[in-house]
Amino acid sequence: MTVLRSSAPPTQRTAAPTSPPGQDGLDLRWVRQQVDAVMNAFVDRKKSAATRAGLPVDIPQAIGEFLAAGGKRIRPLLCVLGWHAAGASGSPAQAVQAGAALEMFHAFCLIHDDVMDHSDTRRGQPAVHRSLAARHRSGRSRALAENIGIGSAILAGDLALVWSDELLHHAATELTAARRERVLPLVDLMRAEVMYGQYLDLTSTGRPTAHTAAALEIIRYKTAKYTIERPLQIGAAIAGADDQLLDALSAFALPLGDAFQLRDDLLGVFGTQKKTGKPAVDDLREGKHTVLIALALQLADPFQQRLLRSLYGTPRLDEEGAATVRTVLKATGADQAVEQMITNRYEQALPLLDTLPIPTEVQHHLRALADQAVWRTA
Amino acid sequence: MTVLRSSAPPTQRTAAPTSPPGQDGLDLRWVRQQVDAVMNAFVDRKKSAATRAGLPVDIPQAIGEFLAAGGKRIRPLLCVLGWHAAGASGSPAQAVQAGAALEMFHAFCLIHDDVMDHSDTRRGQPAVHRSLAARHRSGRSRALAENIGIGSAILAGDLALVWSDELLHHAATELTAARRERVLPLVDLMRAEVMYGQYLDLTSTGRPTAHTAAALEIIRYKTAKYTIERPLQIGAAIAGADDQLLDALSAFALPLGDAFQLRDDLLGVFGTQKKTGKPAVDDLREGKHTVLIALALQLADPFQQRLLRSLYGTPRLDEEGAATVRTVLKATGADQAVEQMITNRYEQALPLLDTLPIPTEVQHHLRALADQAVWRTA
Questions:
Q1: Do A188 and A237 contact (CB within 8 A), yes or no?
Q2: Is residue B144 within a helix (H) or strand (E), and if so which, with residue range?
Q3: Whole-prediction pTM value?
Q4: Do A345 and A255 contact (CB within 8 A), yes or no?
Q5: Is A56 close to B199, i.e. CB distance below 8 A?
Q6: Do residues B219 and B247 touch, judged by C-beta distance below 8 A?
Q7: ipTM exceeds 0.85
Q8: How far off is chain A from B347, nearest CA to CA, in Å?
Q9: Which of B123, B115, B72 is nearest to B274 (CA)?
Q10: Which residue, among A166, A157, A43, has the nearest Cα to A98 in the 3D structure?
Q11: DSSP run (H or E) holding A42
């Protein structure tokens, strides 16, 4: 029986980016390409290893398709920007590699998230548990195929998590022991934080309250730390940043991350599937404890309260019901209140950017990314 | 908002075992205690960190209870024996730490396995998804609580996986770069192998065939490599074993690992809940593609074939139906054929033990563990 081993020796395993095209290494399109190249080469090696061992390639293929279907690559970009923020220069190979690890970790998060939320669509495609169910539908009942799809997606997420760790080890290997000892604990924190955030999210689903503090704690853990703060810090730590810089990056990142998720919540309710890649009714059916619904429940009159409580979080909510919820959210002014919170957080974060002891061009890129994250429409 | 950081600095994080009580360090009871002490201290730190950050301790608590509920600790023991096999002496702290990582990884596997298999019981206790569902039952419908239980158990497994990695990093930190580069790829292989094994297992469930080769491939990946071969090799690699020793350990481990799972399959069907910690009807209801059922389908007459095909893998199989399946499995002689396969594999593995270039006392302990694994009744 063949061993499931990659054919290339460890030193050749990383499709290491050479040098960036510009002088400054701050071409984000190039960074995105490098991150994708590392991930694609990695997944290709996993497919080949499975084939050589006589094992099915279904799971690496599903992960590869998921990665290819979209995604903003915001975490890898922030990781590489964090590396530049710490004043590093030359080839950002380790930051790119760590960025690929973060994106693979994100794939894990989303694959499991869709299982937990029973979401059928992601990035405009069937969710992984749906596509794997379809693969095993032939000759099986629908229920059995769905069960296999869910189990397979749990395994696909697990494998993506393990593979993100493998990518990270490749990056960490090249670091000095002192830097590795600063990077890995940040990764450990990030991974635990997002899972605690997911747990808070899951256990508050279906019973939203008017408590915005609880809703803000959820987005702090499941998004702000995970999406903005830790990727920036991990990149900076790879370049040897001191605690002072890590703390300064955090102060900028957290309000920005909160704003990012508040925008996500608005788009989840008021956006279109064409732009967000998932049905606009999904979030309303799930009944998550968002800041938006908490504020609406605070602001609603008794009639509006009853409407929200009877419709929000109804698994079979139809388009008409969804339209009613949206109307109430707007009538209470909750949508505008969330817009105001986004603006406040953006205005808290951005001035901090100018005070950061980091290269001007990195500030420029972080500002552009912040603008995209906060004012996006998709 | 408090950060989810362990209070102890990294160097103090590991509850490092000092020296073993005997001269040789081969007191396995002591090893088991050390492994448990490392895991318990780790989980306690995670609970404290969650409490300090104002986060729920539900998940670390569920993981801690799961670890405390039982388990043979066979992987940590093999890891430490592998370390001794490579001729190491002194404090086995890194091997113990890696062993704790393997046991935490095993917790992850079982928690997700029970979700995928819809198993209600494990180690004589409610499965993690059941206990977490019960925790969130109050004020919710049963279906909603079950959904939260499943999502929470997916997260608990994810966190156990991430934490196993954290434990592993603690061990790897103390190793030379050269040894770390031999250990981590073995861990990467082990993790992918068990997930491929689980995928083969999952996708063949409900459609068992008479093909023993396919059933043997499943147990090779989901058990033999994962439970015996890799833990031994990982321990040996921590002590700097060369390829020759790793290969020799593999030759001994794989037939033994196959025998271990063949025994598990027999116990799953013919054992008692009191001894195995889970209902004896579970395996029959799941309808896994085991060597036992493959052989039975080969040996069965047409009437027995029909009985097996109509009953095996029926989710609501009752005790009477289960008794019928057991009678048919015995009548075909499949149970005795599996017993013979176990004996063959045991007799293939054990003589290799005598040829291994390892200390006599390690051979002695491996023989005792092999005997327990293969001839156990629980």
A1: no
A2: helix B142-173
A3: 0.93
A4: yes
A5: yes
A6: no
A7: yes
A8: 20
A9: B123
A10: A166
A11: helix A28-52
Comparing C-alpha atoms, which of B184, B182, B197, B195 is closest to residue B246?
Answer: B182
B274 touching A, CB under 8 A?
no
Query: Using CB atoms within 10 A of its CB, is residue B330 exposed (0-12), middle (13-18) or buried (19+)?
Result: middle
Which CA distances in Å does B49 have to A191, A193, A322, B42, B351?
14, 11, 40, 11, 49
Chain B residue numbers touching A221 (CB-CB < 8 A): 55
Residue B125: beta bridge partners? B122
**Rounded to a whole number, what is the distance in angstroms from the first to the last CA of chain A?**
47
* B292 contacts B308 by C-beta, under 8 angstroms: no
B220 touches chain A (CB under 8 A): yes
CB B341 within 8 A of CB B256: no
Residue A197: which residues within 8 A CB-CB, separation 6 or more? Answer: A218, A219, A220, A221, A222, A223, A225, A226
Name which of A128, A81, A338, A109 is nearest A221 in CA terms: A109
Report angle CA A304, A305, A310 to the nearest 5 degrees. 100
Q: In Å, how far are A339, B74, B198 from B373, measured between CA atoms?
A: 62, 9, 21
Q: What would the DSSP string read from start to end of A49-105? A: HHHHTT---HHHHHHHHHHHT----HHHHHHHHHHHHTT--S--HHHHHHHHHHHHH
Helices (H) and strands (E) in chain A, counts: 18, 2
Class of residue B68 by CB neighbours under 10 A (exposed 0-12, middle 13-18, buried 19+): middle
Residue to test with chain B: of A45, A48, A55, A186, most B Cβ within 10 A: A55
In terms of DSSP bridges, do strands B121-122 and B125-126 run parallel, antiparallel, or are they unpaired? antiparallel
Nearest to B311 by CA among B329, B332, B298, B299: B329
Q: How many CB atoms lie within 10 A of CB A278?
A: 21
Q: pLDDT digit string (tens) for B227-276?
A: 999 999 999 999 999 999 999 999 999 999 999 999 999 999 998 777 77
Give me A217's structure tokens: 């704690």
Chain A positions touching B112 (Cβ under 8 A) are 154-155, 158
Contact B144 A173 (CB under 8 A): no
Shortest distance between the Cα of A147 and any Cα of chain B, in A, equals 8
- Per residue in A88-110, pLDDT (tens digit) is 988 999 999 999 999 999 999 99
